[in-house]
Amino acid sequence: MHIAINNINIIDVKNETILHASVGINNCEITKISNPPISAKLIINGKGKFLSPGFIDAHFHIESSNLTPFYFGEAVLRQGASAIIADCHEICNVAGMNGFEYFRDESKKARIDIFLTAPSCVPASHLGTSGAKIGIKEIRQMFEYDEVIALGEVMNFPAVINQDPEIMTKIQTAKEKGKIVNGHAPHLSGNNLKKYINAGITDDHESTSYDEMKEKLSFGMKIFLREGSAEKCPDKCYQLLNEYKDNIMFCSDDKLASDIIKNGHINFNVRKAVSLGINPIRAIRAVSFNTAQYYKLDALGCIEEGKKADLIILNNLQDFIPEITIFNGKVVFKNKETIPVEIELSIHDNILKTIKVEKITTIPLIPFKYYNHIIEVKDGLVITKELNIHTENEIDLDKDILKLVVVERYHKKGNISTCQVHGFNLKNGAIASSIAHDCHNLIAVGTN
User: Residue 395 is part of which domain span?
Assistant: First the structure.
């Protein structure tokens, strides 16, 4: 036996109980669970502590962390994650199949399991200009890889409702391959929601209210409670864990590395659930067993003989910060430090130099006819609204009306678009980014 964890409180997520016993690990597998202590090369004293399955993030875009797949894994294993389902929608919008192959190669080196989804909407819609297109041919190619376990979130829900042939073929291809089809259906309801579900889409992480989630659950969908850097789940929604114990999971979607370091990764969701009165074992079930069952990851999600040894040791059931993380039968994190590892990493040349913008000498004025048709943004939400505020000026700082500019970065059309935006409360200067979901063109907001 390589590792023995003796006299520990084992969290049984299937039966929602706690079992006091010892666990033996050989190679990458749990090989023994018994009452007496177990002998091994490495013995861990579990007295007074809790043993949990590793946490699984049901939906995440690694690109949003500003980290490569390997270093993302290093950041989140400290927070109890042993697996994520990664939608590489962002890098594929910029670099197409070259971006996908880079992510696939580096994900294999990570010290968490990174399962991939084939991005369904590259570009996200016909309205944007992206760096690449992922069509049916590319989707089929991705599905030949075992680590690609789902079709990524189907963002273009109008195309599904209207039965666009290309998106319907992508969904049908996923179903034929036995893959999950991830959803993306903010505010979709009634008959249109039923059409979306009947196409074969089985989950959603974009709902923003208890009632919206409840309706989707009543139609048979799974719900991911999301806590990202810019997306927050209302407290009331966590009560759904008491009503639908098998159909609720947790995801982060988009989370900056700085946010992960400061506030945690998917363990943030678990901690929040418990702080809102949810039984800790029910919360852990959502972030482990439910997710593994949904994605047909039979080796993961619970602590049983024959399961993969992805485990975390917790000092309590309040903060959910691991004392020890075990991945693939090896200790990878202990005493607030990751265990060093030697690994060779490189960036593929064919995903570099993707910003191909010529020198910008002038920014177009916002056409006067579009004044007062203002994009309203709110912190903590990714859904925007149209706002009507009367102004005679392109920029009106007193009314928090700023100028937003989008510059096409791929040297395809050379478009520069402008509009008014409200909600930044910026009084001087400007901010800009090349990270701009979903096409990732250059975007800037300024006061002059």
Answer: 355-446
